[in-house]
Amino acid sequence: MAVNTDKNSYTVIFAAVMVVIVGSLLAFFASSLSEKIQENQRLEKQQNILYAMGVNENEDEGSVNFVSTDKVAGEFEKYIKEQLVIEGDQITKDDNAYLIDLQKQETEAKAGKTRKLPLFIGEKDGSKYYIIPMRGKGLWDAIWGFVALDNNLVVQGVYFDHKGETPGLGANIKQRYFMDDFTGESILKGTQYAGIAVAKGNNDPTNQIKDDNEVDALAGATITGNGLSAMIKESVNLYKSYLESIRAKN
Amino acid sequence: MALLSKKDTSLILDPLADNNPITIQVLGICSALAITAELKASIVMALSVMFVLGMGNVVISLMRNIIPSKIRIIVQLVVVAALVIMVDQVLKAFAYELSKTLSVFVGLIITNCIIMGRFEAFALANGPWRSFLDGIGNSAGYGLILIIIGFFRELLGSGTLLGFKVLGDPIEKTGLYAIGYENNGFMLLSPMALIVVGLIIWVQRSRNKALIEEN
Prior knowledge:
Helices cover about 40% and strands about 25% of the residues of chain A. Chain A is of the alpha+beta class and about 250 residues long. Chain A has one domain (about 50-250). In chain A, a hairpin with a 5-residue loop joins strand 5 and strand 6 (about 155-160). The longest helix of chain A has about 45 residues, at about 10-50. The radius of gyration of chain A is 22 Å and the shape is globular. The mean pLDDT of chain A is about 85. Chain B is built from eight helices and no strands. In chain B, helix 3 (about 40-60) crosses helix 4, helix 4 (about 70-95) packs across helix 6 and helix 6 (about 115-125) packs antiparallel against helix 7 (about 130-160). The longest helix of chain B is centred in the middle third of the chain and has 31 residues, at about 130-160. Chain B is globular and about 65 Å long. The mean pLDDT of chain B is about 85. The chains are: A alpha+beta (about 250), B mainly alpha (about 220). At the A-B interface, helix 1 of A face helix 4 and helix 5 of B. Chain B: Belongs to the NqrDE/RnfAE family. Chain B: InterPro entries: NqrD, NqrDE/RnfAE.
């Protein structure tokens, strides 16, 4: 071919054509697969919610296994009795409350609108679980989770996940040994909604003391831990009025 | 006529042993450390890299005469990035849990030195068919090492292979565990991957003395 590939004009045109071709190719891929990807994300959310209330397929002390994807829809229907949307003072039932995008709600709240707060009520072996979804900031990117509470606002189980925390350090928030520490802690300190802090040097590494509102931190993951503490505290305060009504019923 | 000439065959076979990208050229070490704690993740990473490198080499080779040499590195990056995003999207749609395990690392394929290295060194100077073979050969050599490391790390670290408990149950104390065997948790940490790579290099060079560099 007798094209002078060193000319500036050729370089610019080549770059422009390449960007258009690659861009449209990627757009085509993304839009044709997005339905399938969204479906996967939906099932994952159901798995996470069930995991927090103790419905999972954990095999041993270290494993974190969800209900398998083919069973999750049925199990979700079986265990999650009610899904609520709390909007200011209004509480409505909505079977698709788990699809509410927390990030979007947060932006809308900043714009002055009333925030929709989803809450899931599960029932297993006669006891009730109030599952609060939450979202916060880790070191690199978003972290999120689900915390299951009982009638006395004591944690019965949690599930945490993250987008891009450091593998081996902050990423360990989704490890079993970390998540299991939260079970038995109360989010109340007296009558204050104190949440549960991820604390360094709390003199209780094996987490025997359950009334200190603290769990042992992960070494080398200070900022992820702080983000997690802040996330829990903020979220329980958002749900304060509803949680008060649960306590009052007791 | 055979499908592959002798020269073509060596394009595929050389990187498997005497010109292995990991153990001889020492490229792509980062991903070999990061994702080899499980055999399954190793296999998927190997296949993803094989796809990206094979396709990328062909694309770059087809464009080798029209790529302006001033921006050729950028063009290479765009080709890799586009292919990687496609792999990522396909994994998210059809192997969601796996894509979560690989999450960060799929993106890291872009920075895998083997890919840019083969584009620069081979695809820019050779035809598409030979480039394709070169890509498959190099990624197979890379994948082979990944799978060997993944095999030993998962077997010795968790006592499983592809998730199956091949050594018995560590909690119930069956199989090997009944006679006092314990999993070596250290195998799951990345430094052990480096040590396994070191052992492979040692075995390989003591079998083929020609590979030992002079100091």
